[in-house]
Amino acid sequence: MKWMLVLLALFLSACQGTDAIRQNTAEPPPERNTQMASVVIWWAHGNEPFWHFTADAGKLRFENLGEDAEYFSYRVFDSDGTTRTFNAKNATSSIQIRMMHKTCFNDMSGAEYPWTAEVTIDGRKLQGCGERGSLPE
């Protein structure tokens, strides 16, 4: 019986030592998921309030800073000349995204993007900039 208690104590101390080492060791930032970036079809972001969305072949993910992300089933954006439109609903929200092929400048950084984004989610209208294709580095 004593033998089992000694083994259990050694095992538990070994496990704690590993966790302590992990907590005190600085981990490098995770590498960018290039596989995910290569499947993104659309993305956009905006400021004040800060929001962003990404659309891939399976889902559209929308996130407003400080709120939980919302997910919508992805469907191809409708095309009307230089404007692409996406409309969807999930269990709690409805979203409309209009991507206009018109140069957009980020109002905080001054960065230039080829698409202007207008998002309406549950009646809130948001403006921002975006692109087609993979996410920026």
Describe what you observe in this structure.
With 137 residues, the chain is of the alpha+beta class. Helix content is 21%, strand content 42%. The protein is built from two helices and eleven strands; from the N terminus they run ααβββββββββββ. It has a nine-stranded antiparallel beta sheet, with no helix packed on it. A hairpin with a 6-residue loop joins strand 8 and strand 9. The longest helix has 23 residues, at 2-24. The termini are far apart. The model is unreliable at 2-38 (pLDDT under 50).
Outline:
The chain contains 2 helices and 11 strands, in the order H-H-E-E-E-E-E-E-E-E-E-E-E. It is α+β, with helices and mostly antiparallel strands. The strands form 2 sheets. A 9-stranded antiparallel β-sheet has the order 4-3-2-1-11-10-7-6-5, with no helix packed on it. The chain has a two-stranded antiparallel sheet with strand order 8-9.
